[in-house]
Specification:
Elements: E1 28-36, H1 42-52, E2 56-67, E3 72-77, H2 80-93, E4 98-101, H3 107-117, E5 124-126, H4 144-151, E6 157-158, H5 162-169, H6 177-189, E7 195-197, E8 206-212, E9 217-223, H7 233-246, H8 251-267, H9 285-288
Parallel strand pairs: 1-2, 1-4, 4-5, 5-6
Antiparallel strand pairs: 2-3, 7-8, 8-9
Helix pairs in contact: 1-7, 2-3, 3-4, 5-6, 7-8
Length: 291
Amino acid sequence: MIAGPVLPFAPPCAGPTPDHKEAVLTPTALTIAGSDSGGGAGIQADLKTFSALGVYGASVITALTAQNTRAVTMVAPTTAAMITAQMDAVFDDLDIHAVKLGMLGGVDAIRAVARGLQDRDLPVILDPVMVAKSGDALLDNDAIGSLRDLLLPRATLLTPNLPEAARLLGCPMAETRRDMLDQASALIAQGAHAVLMKGGHGQGPECHDLLVTPDQVTAFTARRHATRNTHGTGCTLSAAIAAGLAKGMDLTQAVAKAHSYLQGAIAAADDLDIGQGHGPVHHFHAVWSHA
């Protein structure tokens, strides 16, 4: 056999090299929230939600928590300097299309996040996380005013459950649809551009959520599922809305898609066997069912 010259391998009809590949926009969302060591809520739930919905997720951790499905046993806040450094690092390199705010914990964190979002033209979903499913407090009382003053006006959408809305307003928890509408209007008057009043703490066989803007009200109704595995529902819903906005949906469409996704995650929650308390919803219910 006669050896010929060694030529670089080039398969016939080869396509463009990676250097010339046309760029494809990747929808990317940023979650700014606390970490849940049990994996069911917080940063972990947000990143699972982003991934399940086809969105790349970045994160800024505002606090470390030691928790599981039964209790939060320790909380260690991240310093304001570290929150700022994380936000700077993400925004300096990644093209972020939507931001979700979750557990912030205290005044210093809220101020750092507000500074980091200043002058950024991005949709922001604010989930005012105050109490864990176990009943443990996750927001200092003295931080509520800072949340209202610094972040509410920055929120494209505020997503309080009924106890959170009452605490933000300093009034009794809403019991009727009229109460929910009145409280949503009061929160819009305080600066929020729109409010999704979540009715999970209400009574009856159906759960009613109300999306309230200055111009219209849109209701989302779902059957209540008989499960105790609802850890991370609020985080998951707000993250799903952020994912929809990152993909270019308008607000009503993003809320509708997120509501449907969450109902599927709750309905499939008992397919998981995680922990001995309030287990997580099934973030990958649509994916794992086809695996």
